[in-house]
Amino acid sequence: MIGCSDKLTQLPPYLFSRINQLKREAFTKKLDVIDLGMGVLHHPTTHRYPQAKGMPKFRRTAADWLERRFGVTLDPEREVLALIGTKEGIAHLAMALLNPGELALVGDPAYPVHRNGVILAGGEVFFLPLRQENQYLPDLGAIPTAIAQRAKLLLLNYPNNPTTAVVEDLTFFKEVVAFAKKYDLVVCHDNPYCEITFDGYVAPSFLQVPGAKAIGVECFSFSKTYNMAGWRVGWMCGSERIVGYVEKFKSFIDYGVPTFLQLAGVSALQSPLAVVAETVKIYQRRRDQWVQGLAKLGWQVPTPKATMYVWAPLPERFRAQGSLAFAERLIQETGIVVAPGVGFGPGGEGYVRMALVTHDHRFHDALLRLKKFLRQEPVSMPGSRGPGGEPGAVAE
Fold first, then answer.
1. Does 380 have pLDDT greater than 60?
2. What pLDDT is attached to residue 329?
3. Domain range for 329
4. Whether residue 258 is found in the same domain as residue 303
5. CA 167 – CA 135 distance, rounded (Å)
6. Pairing of strands 216-221, 234-238
7. Among residues 98, 189, 202, 290, which one has the fewest Cβ atoms lying within 10 Å of its Cβ?
């Protein structure tokens, strides 16, 4: 069974975590608690230090949402952890689990923190190719046995950023659970786009697979579903053991999500489903407008079933110059910003990611600018960098 990193083992239990636990027990016993510590539980304001694991109300509400949405039952006390956004949670998971030189399996291309979090933890990355011909799913059977035996962590993300790929049912996740059990590794499924889906597609949860909770965790975000990107709030849930490692790590380096933001998250999760449906309707309208508009210009791109992105192969005439040079020239000559695919890993070369996050009328303006741009001859951009350059500075 995978344990935490050596550095985390060397740390004693965080003092204030124990004090907070005793304080909660005192409240439960109806004691008249005079709090001269630093907690926030039952305080009339929301401006004191929060608990690193998240307030009980937030964790209960997140667990209730998971059960309503996916039929997944969780213990909010031990299996749910508030995050300062899933980006933070994934990076801290890598730091809590990995010792220097230990291996993580990461998709290529992938959301940058999947790779960068491992590197910052001192771990090594083994890239799993995500290719269109395989529906952007990793071929677990193609992973060399020696690599699988060394691996300690597998990072996944469906619906996927940047490729927009989805899993149609639980078949792939069942393969993942079997693979993780065979090689004794931890799975983290990053699932912030599960509610941004189109054309009747419904995204599953990794935790719906029997046995998944024993070997993995799943991360959820308010950024996309509820348009709360700058609020920095999300949660991790699943294995009590793994959630506990991350909670311990976080207790030494941050105080958790501000209480008023957790309460905002509670309100969001308890809001009517129509709120999210309206957001999805807007994204779908923009998706259709953009994909159809590009097609009229001769730029054929796949229509995504989920996420707020379009993963677009470079037009044939521009592929030789690479995604970064293309993106640089596009912004310099037209003011249109896209994320170069190489920023998401070497496997992203040849693509750009476009986000459906601007006003509707601006897509019309962008198409007018692209019409002229795409008629030009490709040119080399001095100083442009390809896959070996600096791919990290992309929009998230």
1. no
2. 87
3. 274-373
4. no
5. 9
6. antiparallel
7. 202
